[in-house]
Specification:
By secondary structure, this protein is an alpha/beta fold. The protein contains 7 helices and 11 strands. It has helices at 18-35, 64-75, 94-99, 130-139, 142-149, 153-164, 184-195, and strands spanning 4-8, 39-44, 79-83, 102-104, 108-112, 115-120, 200-203, 209-213, 219-223, 231-235, 240-244. A 6-stranded mixed β-sheet has the order 4-3-2-1-10-11, covered by helices on one side. A 5-stranded mixed β-sheet has the order 5-6-7-9-8, covered by helices on one side. The longest helix has 18 residues, at 18-35. It is globular, with a radius of gyration of 18 Å. The structure holds manganese (II) ion. Manganese (II) ion binds at residues 10, 47, 85, 87, 205, 207.
């Protein structure tokens, strides 16, 4: 039996509060148990945590069941990738050292069973959103990160959790489809296709599960999020499918 590759993102663990997040974490762990027997590679494509900042000797409390499950999967031989999202780009080497997870900073181009994949969280791509693109440079700046890291965690995490609770997901607004000509990640994917062929563009960030045919045989799949959709993508060596764990709520 050919093993499968799984893609999921935007768990936003921590949001909107502790008890809701714990329920979602339990659902995610259940999903990981469900996929483990058939999983060869797992791509966690950003915003897994609503906020994550890793200090030199300190990590944020919580999310221990997810971390334990990922460690178990990695120990059993499943390769795990963790993409930096706009909410958790401040991962450092903790998950790599502890679990063996590979951290991905920007796009990752892979080929599996003869299919070419363009993978990215999705933030800062395509037209528009210049304010975020500017902030992203600051957030990803080594010196700015160092300045934040010397704040005591009590202050740093207080500021950051306040900031992340303002996100649209925390206020539980569902995203709506803008039409293919206005979906900026579809526009971005089409631009990339002028330069090189990809069979699949897989992004998160949009918080809306999408499966859009681009030119020829190329598709743009958005893997949605786990507050409203429990959505993920699975590649079985032949086909890529957008799926919903325990049904689309
Ligand atoms: Mn997100």
């Amino acid at each position: 039996m050919e093993k499968c590759i799984y893609f999921a993102s935007d768990f936003h663990l921590g949001a909107p509060n502790y008890s809701e997040s714990r329920k979602r974490e339990a659902r995610i762990v259940k999903w990981l148990d469900f996929i483990s027997p058939t999983c060869s590679e797992l791509f966690l494509m950003g915003d897994i945590f609503d906020f994550w900042f890793e200090y030199h000797h300190v990590i944020p409390k919580g999310f221990i069941r997810l971390q334990g499950k990922l460690a178990q999967m990695a120990d059993s031989g499943i390769k795990i990738y963790f993409f930096k999202g706009n909410h958790d780009m401040w991962v450092d080497d903790y998950f790599t050292k502890e679990i063996g997870i590979e951290i991905v900073s920007d796009e990752l181009l892979i080929e599996r069973s003869g299919k070419k994949f363009f993978l990215h969280h999705g933030d800062g791509l395509g037209p528009g959103d210049s304010k975020y693109k500017f902030l992203r440079k600051i957030f990803r700046n080594k010196f700015c990160q160092w300045l934040f890291s010397i704040l005591p965690p009590r202050i740093g995490l207080f500021v950051a959790n306040g900031w992340s609770s303002q996100s649209r997901l925390a206020s539980n607004q569902k995203e709506v489809f803008l039409g293919e000509d206005k979906e900026w990640l579809a526009i971005f994917a089409k631009e990339q296709l002028h330069k090189a062929h990809f069979d699949y563009f897989i992004f998160g960030h949009r918080h809306l599960p999408l499966d859009i045919n681009l030119f020829e045989s190329s598709r743009y799949i958005n893997i949605g999020e786990w507050i409203n959709y429990n959505s993920y993508a699975v590649f079985d060596g032949t086909d890529l499918t957008l799926a919903y764990f325990e049904g689309n709520p």
